[in-house]
């Protein structure tokens, strides 16, 4: 039927088979074009995927230092030096430094100076990730209020309940965590 409401005259059997062959040829060409387009898309995706993964923090290896999403503030702003005095203290934004891409705050200029003189001595182990999680070969955030200094090293856990589990075998959990770190970030 035409657009104006008329009818079409049927083609002869010869014309019909030619039209059918042309239609099949056209459909085959379309299929080949789609297949080539899909192959090209797959190849482009295979090339772009490593770049995309490396550039996207959610898909790439986890950062060496744990910071909450949308911030680079380590230890949720607590002063890393203060833990070694027996009690964590919130840092003051006027006493700040950046180390390994994370921002650290300090309660005093003296604590900032001590950190700058030897940051590795004050950083939480496993980058501030939960020590229990790292011991069990995965990562979870570390809570700056679920902490313990053992052998002059600071360890954080996900929360106080998890910290109790970790504390049930501190030497064993530290040994397992040391074995898993930093491969657990991959």
Description of the structure:
A two-stranded antiparallel ribbon has the order 1-2. A two-stranded antiparallel ribbon has the order 3-4. Helix content is 41%, strand content 14%. It contains five helices and four strands, in the order αββααββαα. The chain has helices at 13-55, 109-117, 131-135, 160-167, 170-180; strands at 92-99, 102-106, 143-150, 153-157. With 186 residues, the chain is an alpha+beta fold.
Largest pleated sheet: 2 strands, antiparallel
User: First CA to last CA: what distance?
Assistant: 64 Å
Structural class: alpha+beta
Residue windows where pLDDT falls under 50 for at least 5 positions: 51-57
Care to give the gist of this entry?
The chain has 186 residues and is α+β, with helices and mostly antiparallel strands. It is 41% helix and 14% strand. The strands form two sheets. Strands 1-2 form a two-stranded antiparallel ribbon. Strands 3-4 form a two-stranded antiparallel ribbon.
Keywords:
single chain, about 190 residues, alpha+beta, two-stranded antiparallel ribbon, 5 helices, about 40% helix, elongated
Note the topology.
Blueprint: H1 13-55, E1 92-99, E2 102-106, H2 109-117, H3 131-135, E3 143-150, E4 153-157, H4 160-167, H5 170-180
Antiparallel strand pairs: 1-2, 3-4
């Amino acid at each position: 039927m035409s657009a104006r409401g008329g009818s079409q005259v049927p083609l002869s059997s010869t014309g019909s088979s030619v039209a059918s062959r042309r239609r099949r040829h056209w459909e085959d060409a379309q299929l080949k074009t789609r297949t080539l387009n899909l192959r090209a898309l797959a190849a482009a995706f295979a090339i772009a995927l490593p770049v995309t993964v490396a550039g996207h923090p959610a898909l790439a290896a986890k950062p060496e230092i744990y910071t909450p999403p949308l911030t680079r503030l380590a230890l949720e702003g607590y002063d890393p030096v203060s833990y070694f005095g027996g009690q964590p203290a919130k840092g003051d934004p006027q006493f700040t430094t950046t180390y390994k891409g994370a921002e650290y705050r300090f309660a005093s200029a003296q604590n900032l100076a001590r950190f700058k003189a030897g940051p590795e001595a004050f950083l939480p182990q496993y980058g501030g990730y939960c020590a229990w999680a790292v011991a069990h070969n995965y990562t979870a955030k570390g809570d700056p209020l679920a902490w313990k200094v053992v052998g002059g090293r600071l360890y954080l856990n996900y929360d106080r309940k998890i910290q109790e589990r970790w504390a049930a075998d501190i030497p064993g959990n530290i040994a397992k965590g040391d074995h898993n770190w930093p491969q657990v970030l991959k």
